[in-house]
Specification:
The protein has a domain of about 60 residues. Helices cover about 70% and strands about 0% of the residues. It is built from three helices and no strands.
């Protein structure tokens, strides 16, 4: 789990840094994918649990988890909007 959190932080920081400079559809897709996978992971840890990580099953009211759900949900909604509305870049 620790490694997954580290990877999430790295991907989030890189995507955020790139999005500060450009309006890249690919980067919005990466940001949305990271947010979506985080939401799926949160739901899995609260419902079935993950191997070697059963501590949070049923723990839906954790404040930091609820804040994460809100932020990741907003990133996912924004990234879907941006991917749909941002024009494809054409070569030439």
């Amino acid at each position: 789990m620790f490694g997954l959190y580290i990877m999430l932080m790295i991907v989030s920081l890189l995507a955020g840094g790139i999005l500060l400079r450009t309006d890249s559809r690919l980067t919005w897709m990466v940001a949305g994918g990271a947010a979506g996978l985080t939401l799926v992971g949160f739901i899995l840890t609260r419902t079935t649990g993950l191997p070697s990580f059963p501590d949070n099953v049923g723990n839906w009211r954790e404040p930091l988890g609820l804040a994460s759900l809100w932020v990741e949900g907003m990133v996912l909604v924004l990234s879907v909007y941006k991917v749909v509305t941002t024009r494809l870049m054409k070569d030439g």
